[in-house]
Automatic annotation (TrEMBL):
GO terms for cellular component: cytoplasm. SUPFAM superfamilies: Prokaryotic type KH domain (KH-domain type II) (SSF54814). Keywords: Cell shape, Cell wall biogenesis/degradation, Chaperone, Cytoplasm, RNA-binding. It comes from Sporosarcina luteola. InterPro entries: KH_dom-like_a/b, KH_sf_prok-type, KhpA. Pfam families: KH_KhpA-B (PF13083). One of its GO terms (molecular function) is RNA binding. The gene is khpA. This is RNA-binding protein KhpA. A probable RNA chaperone. Forms a complex with KhpB which binds to cellular RNA and controls its expression. Plays a role in peptidoglycan (PG) homeostasis and cell length regulation. Forms a complex with KhpB. It is found in: Cytoplasm. It comes from the Bacteria.
Length: 77
């Protein structure tokens, strides 16, 4: 899942080397924390959050039923 997020985000940003995805796994949830260069934040979020929503939709769809755990994607600023 981490690789999927990086594959989606890196082509969108000007500083692909700064893209970082961390995984925080708890009992009933897995949270992926995406951080990018501050200059690229607008590109990842998009107008009215449309790009961020599209990224989340793809990630949630790809996750399916991840062993009964709920998947979340947080964009860290």
């Amino acid at each position: 899942m981490k690789q999927l997020i990086e594959t989606i985000v890196k082509p969108l940003v000007d500083h692909p080397g700064d893209v970082q995805v961390d995984k925080d796994e708890q009992h009933h949830r897995v949270t992926y924390k995406l951080s990018v260069n501050p200059e690229d934040m607008g590109k990842v979020i998009g107008k009215q959050g449309r790009v961020a929503k599209a990224i989340r939709t793809i990630v949630y769809s790809a996750a399916g039923s991840h062993h009964g755990k709920k998947i979340y994607l947080d964009i860290i600023d």
